[in-house]
Design goal:
By secondary structure, the protein is of the alpha+beta class. It is built from seven helices and twelve strands. The longest helix has 10 residues.
Length: about 190
């Protein structure tokens, strides 16, 4: 082998960058391969919740269940009155954004069937890292990106950033049609 030896992790990374085995087969057949926008990282199970009242948990500048949140105005406006009943347990898929992209490209790769997550599940993940500990959510100042419906049923991009200087989570909401560009390295959460 003229390029040295690759370990299994490196081989898997190459396969993932080519878009899985289908991408490898296209590459080997010398067909054009568009590199994927998202790289799969892992799946995490989140619990069922009988009732989730957002205003009981998401309180600006207050600690609830050990979690300090700083809520931007748009997050408070869209989700402050949200109440979810009988939220099912589910698997949340986590992907890393491999290159900068607007939300339209991210949504296209995730697909409409998998893009929506629940506010209760975001809260659960925040409670696992209340002090910015290592875990499922990024705590390095990069965005954790979710798509969640408001009380009117409109889908929003919800971003959670750990703010180490303020020792808390900053939560915002923006339109899924926004022209905002998300940075390479951010994490995207879906079902």
């Amino acid at each position: 082998m003229i390029y040295g030896e690759l370990n299994l992790g490196q081989i898997e990374a190459v396969i993932n960058k080519l878009g899985g085995m289908d991408g490898v087969m296209q590459f080997l057949a010398d067909k054009s391969v568009t590199p994927p926008l998202l790289g799969f990282i892992t799946v995490v199970k989140v619990p069922a919740v009988k009732q989730f009242v957002a205003s009981d948990y998401f309180k600006h500048g207050e600690v609830v269940d050990g979690v300090m949140c700083y809520l931007l105005d748009n997050f408070q406006k869209q989700f402050g009155q949200r109440v979810d009943e009988n939220v099912d347990e589910c698997d949340i898929r986590i992907h890393k954004l491999l290159r900068n992209s607007r939300d339209l490209g991210i949504r296209a790769e995730i697909t409409e069937e998998r893009e929506e997550t629940k506010l209760a599940h975001l809260w659960h993940l925040l409670t696992l890292q209340p002090n910015g500990e290592n875990g499922t959510l990024l705590t390095n100042g990069s965005a954790n990106i979710f798509r969640i419906r408001d009380t009117e049923g409109t889908l929003w991009v919800v971003d959670a950033f750990w703010r180490s200087g303020r020792r808390g989570w900053r939560l915002g909401a923006s339109s899924v049609g926004s022209l905002r560009e998300w940075c390479n390295g951010n994490l995207v959460y879906s079902r």
